UniProtKB/TrEMBL annotation:
The keyword DNA repair applies. Residues 3-125 form the Nudix hydrolase domain. Its cofactor is Mg(2+). SUPFAM superfamilies: Nudix (SSF55811). This is 8-oxo-dGTP diphosphatase. Coiled coil: none annotated. PROSITE patterns: NUDIX (PS51462), NUDIX_BOX (PS00893). It comes from Gordonia aquimaris. InterPro entries: MutT-like, Nudix_hydrolase, NUDIX_hydrolase-like_dom_sf, NUDIX_hydrolase_CS, NUDIX_hydrolase_dom. Keywords: DNA damage, DNA repair, DNA replication, Hydrolase, Magnesium, Metal-binding, Mutator protein. It catalyses: 8-oxo-dGTP + H2O = 8-oxo-dGMP + diphosphate + H(+). Its EC number is 3.6.1.55. GO terms for biological process: DNA repair; DNA replication.
Amino acid sequence: MTGHRIVVAGAVLDRDRLLLAQRRYPPDLAGLWELPGGKVEAGESPADALRRELREELGVTIAVGAALRESVALTRDLTLVALRARIECGTPHPAEHEALRWVDAPGLRLMHDSGRLVPADNVWVPELLGDLGG
């Protein structure tokens, strides 16, 4: 038994914009948009994992901020959490995603309302809209 695992997502904010990443896989999520991130490795904090994942996946260095209020139980043994972040260095490029997109509050609302976000990230939309002034 491996125990409980954490997956961390980054709510990467730039003034009134949020960075979304388009999934390549698995097939049931391919084409949908998400907050970028990945699994927390043994001995790693969620903040350290997010820094590592966004460096590997997007080529950026980030500053990590406060967590979003809700966590999401993906399975009995896997929980998704989200941390606010801002880019300190670099321009994001999609190494493991199909595409990246900056969205403002109306854009995030449209992505949500049209079902284009991965289902697990929908819980954060109201809080993120507040962060974006929408």
